[in-house]
């Protein structure tokens, strides 16, 4: 008898333990069905102020997937009909009592920092590698709380671009990323430590083109100073109207979205004049150190369809209570028809990536109706970051970015804290929570609007008390 030839070596045989898929209940490899008690599609309902909810008390509802894509959403009998012969080989995940909804979207993250460390850690010669590793940690943290898409609005060394590509090619698991690379700012301006410093029109052209060359999706610039950079004044614009117009025009010419950090009214107005797509903060802080909402400017923002994140982090409602002078006007903007999205600046000091859901609750607390908060975190957020029709809703043709939560978020956003499944591009992500780093008890005073504004108002008071010197 001829001796048996051993099997030819395969790629797998070079591993001591052949790699297997992990504990995923939905692997993204083929057809799958996920069932639950109700589905929030991430879209508006027919009645004003409501969300589209699918439920079938008799048969239940579900989502049918084919690999990374959603093929059907609705009552189970319909899905079973549609699955037909594939029904036998479906992966099946039943989550009785749960709500299925689109994965959450953070439209304003800083991935290279942790939110609990100092904002610009000194890593010396290891800076690029350490910031990259921080960003890997950040995407794990974000995915573990149910965030399946993220817009990065500022990352040194373009670590967000590299990370986006590594996620897309399967090297790493994480939310779908939209990357901005470093923020464009003025020399010594807001976030200059992390940004690309420019002065004048030629510098601006060069910076926007360089960002394009390095693969960004969004060009972010600092239209005003900010609270976290000492001596950059949030109520003053940093760029002239002509400079902002050039940043936005050059960004659009290259096919990218533009985003501006803007606190003060002057900077907001110039960014709107320039044709900006996305505004971060919009706190309308004035030179007197108070939020002075400008309804006419809000109307222009609404009319232009600009997306706005008011950066309502978990701490903001308490901060407004202590110091009502600084009150980002999320409610007033929304009332005038502005498209508010859930961007929380996660990663900056005191804003951990995992605090995103607490930020959604804060957005409700400052006056945004709950249904609007859910839209702001799903379909509208997707549109704001250039992913309309790709993610942010549960509907046929969309990519399968889905979370399941234990109860009904329309009864209370706290439901979003109890995840039962996170599915990114059709494949389950098994939450891998990172251990929380301790918060800093004695934060950098320059990072606290209340302290910055108190110092500013004190200087105004002194000038007023001594007018004739
Ligand atoms: Zn930011």
Automatic annotation (TrEMBL):
Chain residue ranges for the region called Disordered: 1-29
Cited SUPFAM superfamilies: Composite domain of metallo-dependent hydrolases, Metallo-dependent hydrolases
InterPro entries for the chain: Amidohydro-rel, Metal-dep_hydrolase_composite, Metal_Hydrolase, Metallo-dep_Hydrolase
GO molecular function, one term: hydrolase activity, acting on carbon-nitrogen (but not peptide) bonds
Domain spans labelled Amidohydrolase-related: 99-409
Coiled-coil annotated residue ranges, if any: none
Alphabetical list of Gene3D superfamilies matching this protein: Metal-dependent hydrolases, Urease, subunit C, domain 1
Identification of the protein by name: Imidazolonepropionase
